[in-house]
Amino acid sequence: MTANPSPAHRWIRWPSDDRSPRLGYGADYNPEQWPREVWKDDIRLMREAGVNIVSLAIFSWARLQPTADSWDFDWLDEIMDLLHAGGVAVDLATATASPPPWLTTLHPEILPVTRTGETLWPGARQHWRPTSPVFRTHALRLVQALATRYANHPALAAWHVSNELGCHNVYDYSDDAARAFRVWLRARYGTLDALNHAWGTAFWSQHYSDWEQLLPPRLAASHPNPTQQLDFKRFSSDALRDHLRAEREVLTRITPDVPVTTNFMVMGETRGMDYASWADDVDFVSNDHYVHPGPQGLDELSFSANLVSGIAGHRPWYLMEHSTSAVNWQHVNQAKLPGELARDSLLHVGHGADTVAFFQWRQSAAGAEKYHSAMVPHAGPDSEVFRAVTALGRTLAALAPVAGTTRRPARAAIVFDWDSWWTAEHDSHPTALLRYRQEALDWYSAFLALGVRADVVPTRADFSGYDVLVAPVLHVVPTALADRLRGFVEAGGHLVTTYFSGIVDENDHVHLGGHPGALRDLLGIRVEEFAPLPEGAEVGLDDGNRATLWTDAVTVTATDVLTLARYTDGPQAGRPALTRRTVGTGSAAYLSTRLGAEQLPGVLGQLLAGADVGSELPEAACGRVDLTIRQSAEEEFWFLTNRTADPVPLPSVEGELLAATVEPGRDADVLVLPPRAVAVLRRPHRAAD
Ligand code: GAL
User: Fold this and answer.
1) Fold for domain 412-610?
2) Nearest residue (CA) to ligand 1, atom 3
3) pTM exceeds 0.70, yes or no
């Protein structure tokens, strides 16, 4: 009955006596912060809340290995047994995220070094170099000890490698990093000639005549070489992935049947890790997400969860962390409003999460995160938060039939690319104001405003099932990607791209002959000069929109190009701002400026109409409801999330109500979605239109 994940996908190994479908529900659990008396109470409350899995021992290295030569597993044995007896499975951490003081005292050479040469000292967490051979040896010793000890423990459901790899140590400029960077560069380029070409070292006398001369882009006198910067970003992401692989290798050697994961951070401006390239190194994808309050806060949650699903190939994934209420690390840490805890959780489930977990189970009484919310707050179980937590547990139990289903792909997708993110925001560019992810998010907000489902997918995704691809600021376009995009359009697909797209190849070399070089012929336009706008400046378009940030000197070069909007003032007055070329039954459109989330729906609506892609929602719900669909061969589940603080009627939306975060109302026969509520409707599977 469940969908068919590829063989590469291995989900949580639930205790063997119970194979019924279920969603996971839980938290990071840090019993080492509490006296033993609290543990039994924890398990009792977990049962009350419906918790069935916890991530354990994440920051326990110092407790598990108090000195270089002593180990203490007794407490972990005891809590593993207690959890198992209480029916709670364990996603057991390898505990390598935060090295203990004895290790950093013995080996200060594992500490990361910043771009300016400062050491990041112990006292917080994640103070280790991803490329330190000494750190690696000690970390793997711990992994081996844990894997050996718990290999046959019945509570062990999955392995949790480290924690948020790269959270605080993605860019390390130490000598270890320099050595590993050279090895990485040799593997990538083979010869110094190839490297010198790729890095464009004829410029500013940067020619390298020996591999030993190569360095990470440490603080320099001026703008560091852009390809060196890009390669260092790629290398840093790969170095962390390499650590993941090293831990995974130990784990799978000792426990081949236990799935391995690590928690990604697809959220906000966290950008150091190219997670699309990590997806094949985990048995199932996990993600941590924290809401950034603001007008696009909920859109951003939906965007991130959607991208996680894209990375996971639409297969189920594990929401490893989010918050029940306030966090402690934003400028002002706002509590969630009633209904938001459950709404946020179910929006992730709608995008494919089969487990919902929080940071953390019990709010700490001491330490840097004592003001971070948890499932059991300082106030204790007699609290609004814990009541919301137990209510969510019931809702997730009712959603058990959703477990194992996949997310239904949309007809439209936004293409997301880490190389373009990193490169488009480099220094020494036409503007320092460009924000890659914000542009992508604005297009996503436009889809939400129109009520049209859109996926967010990495460039390595198969584009062929989509009717529309929106590729905002797709800056890095190697020839192979340009060919794929051309093939997509020639096969009848509709491509929409924007300013600063198609400009450079994989080495960050400009495609010559006029911009946007890699996509110029496909779009049927030619740009001789970029014309970015000063901060705060706006120019008008003849469709009434106001544009900021960027304009281009666009010339139309193909006869089948329609100019859909022109600039009315500013440096490009009279020139095309929005063009669309028809290619057979497909098309290729180009928007040469930034319109922002408020104005993009108009333009997007126009382009989608040309592609005959519309909303699956009733008109009254468009813009107010975020729709995601999960499906098996027989059934489909419509997750309808009210994005507003008002009730929203859902006329003509069919299906049996499987679960809701707040009981929906009825107006005659029409279901009414309460403010901030999510309802899940179950219906027989129908082929997508
Ligand atoms: C995550 C981390 C958790 C906790 C949480 C607080 O980055 O994995 O350990 O610090 O943030 O929001």
Assistant:
1) Rossmann fold (3.40.50)
2) 359
3) yes
